[in-house]
């Protein structure tokens, strides 16, 4: 699989720039650097964010480099300028072997817990009176699988576990109010091709590195979610291919629970054939299915605010769009 190209970094920078000015400038710097593009081309994924995370991880491990001046997570507050690209090139050249190893072995791993504010109403919408046996595809460290242990504020409407270390605010867009009474979770599991072990310092550092470095609120949410996981987790994550493992994990769920398969920001890594196979697999099972994914991957829609995900749910492999959600959480438009 070919790594990201200059246009991939420019496109990612355009999308990321409004929320992460630093990554907007970093992506433009990489796109203009033959040396950095050659290193990025060794990536196991075609998306730009794996290379960005690999650089960030090295900087978190060694925050005494000049590049740290630009990264708030490494103590920096310097605005992007003409020295950013040379600093990136020097930093990456000095750590080429470690970066190449990361690009060959790591995968993008983002537990964006703010997305749980959209998942909670989706879980409520599929509930049928039974407790949930939930299975997350692309679970990473399983932090989103602990959604019922977080506290939520939907514009003055509280939900979830009051007093949780993780407080998630969600702006409701439009006139509709979603269901906010969460079902009970009786059993939880996840599947990931490269799960994150919360007992491993390097794995936890990788989780931090996959977050954008100038978004303090996201990093604060991660630290709070890690605290919750130490109290209530970890979720059991099965390592391997989701389509191969999913039938066995479904079969392991308690008989008296409603099996609910869910995922967010995952199918972009699947491709059309694997998405079609997932749909066929779930059509053969009497399970609930919830997805928060980029528009068009599972449900066509009238394009609304961007960037955003389409929130869908259903049974028997058939999905209905419930609404739109912020791609990093933060807002929900319920249909």
The mean pLDDT is: 95
Quaternary structure annotation: single chain
Helix content: 25-40%
Distance between the termini: 38 Å
Largest sheet: 9 strands, mixed
Structural class: alpha/beta
The top-level CATH class of the largest domain is Alpha Beta
Rg result = 20 Å
The second-level CATH architecture of the largest domain is 3-Layer(aba) Sandwich
What do you see in this structure?
The longest helix has 17 residues, at 216-232. By secondary structure, the protein is of the alpha/beta class. Helix content is 37%, strand content 19%. It has eleven helices and twelve strands. The strands form two sheets. Strands 5-12-11-10-9-8-1-6-7 form a nine-stranded mixed β-sheet, sandwiched between helices. A three-stranded mixed β-sheet has the order 3-2-4, covered by helices on one side. The mean pLDDT is 95. The radius of gyration is 20 Å and the shape is globular. The protein folds into two domains: 6-105, no CATH class; 113-334, Rossmann fold (3-Layer(aba) Sandwich), CATH 3.40.50.
SSE diagram, text form:
Elements lengths: L5 H11 L4 H11 L2 H7 L8 H13 L22 H11 L1 H10 L10 H11 L5 E6 L13 E3 L4 E3 L6 E3 L1 E3 L11 E8 L8 H9 L6 H17 L3 E4 L2 H11 L5 E7 L7 H12 L4 E6 L14 E8 L2 E9 L4 E4 L1
Parallel strand pairs: 1-6, 1-8, 2-4, 5-12, 6-7, 8-9
Antiparallel strand pairs: 2-3, 9-10, 10-11, 11-12
Helix pairs in contact: 1-2, 4-6, 4-8
Task: Compose a concise summary of this entry.
By secondary structure, the protein is of the alpha/beta class. Helix content is 37%, strand content 19%.
Top keywords for this entry?
11 helices; 19% strand; 3-stranded mixed sheet; Rossmann fold; 2 domains; alpha/beta; 335 residues
